[in-house]
Amino acid sequence: MSEQEFQKATFAGGCFWCMVKPFDQEPGIHSVISGYTGGHTVNPTYEEVCSDTTGHTEAVQITFDPDIISYNDLVEIYWRQTDPTDASGQFADRGSSYRPVIFYHSEEQRQIAENSKMALQNSGRFKKPVVTMIEPAEPFYPAETYHQDFYKKNPAHYSRYSQGSGRVNFIEKTWQEK
To answer: b or e along 100-110 (b: 16 or more beta carbons within 10 Å of the residue's beta carbon)?
Structure first.
């Protein structure tokens, strides 16, 4: 498949370290890049984004083959990595740079995300409202090299962080089959 036939999906769900692995292991995924989007400065650094002065959110941008994995499937994977009822950050990561957002790249993606969000809200899985924002994709800036594929390069640190942040326990408790 040529590069032009791949599509992009962009998701923010707290620390981007924890958002790479769940997508990276799926068939049809060409790449998962950690980075920053949704802000008002060009090419921000990690330190600038963490200062909450750039307006950016930590996110992952996924390049995928829609003939192998659908955008709807990616949205479903996304929900299972986040607390969609927490607009102020995710788990131990607080502030606007960690807010949950689905950034859509087309009207079709927007509709899929909106429908999925409504279905999740109506599912009864959460007592609080689903507050994850759905916003148009904006310029995406890849994070520094040391942030890319963090779960592969630093598996022990990644494991401690994802566990210590509360993410792993939340996912297990919330998404286990009932």
So the answer is: bbbbbeeeebb
pLDDT tens-digit series, residues 82-117? 999 999 999 999 999 999 999 999 999 999 999 999
Name the active-site residue from 9, 15, 75, 112: 15
Based on the residue annotation, tell me whether 18 is a catalytic residue of this protein: no
User: CA 145: distance to chain centroid?
Assistant: 18
> Is the pTM for the entire model greater than 0.90?
yes
Question: Could you tell me the pLDDT band of residue 3, with boundaries at 50, 70 and 90?
Answer: low
Distance (Å, rounded) from C-alpha 166 to C-alpha 95? 16
Contact 15, 62 (CB under 8 A): no
What is the distance between the terminal CA atoms of the chain, rounded to a whole angstrom? 39
